[in-house]
Fold this protein.
Amino acid sequence: MIFPENLRYSSDHEWVRVEGDVVRVGITDYAQDALGDVVFVDLPAIGMTASAGDAFSEIESTKSVSDIYAPIAGEVVDVNVALVDAPELVNHDPYGEGWLCVLRPVDIDELSGLLDAAAYQTLIEG
């Protein structure tokens, strides 16, 4: 499993990368591995706002359908439309081409409530 040090992680297995005044969101390597082959991603709508912990997307795999939760509160300002035709990008590159959306945070300080790489690794190895 890969746990990039420059990311923050939710206990629901989403990752967050700060990019200026927005954050990019995806699911972790652990989550994509647990899901199996991803066959469909229901992306959130641009302009939607979500509170931290709200289900705002779904991922369907050959094993199950899983909700994706907003790791912090914010407005969706971009989505990865490449996943419409190639949902398997989530499996092949979860921290790169397999990202889900970009949020404009309501309060960037909410990031302090997320896990660093070491804490996330401890969580999943628990």
In short: The chain has a mean pLDDT of 96. The CA atoms of residues 8 and 25 lie 10 Å apart.
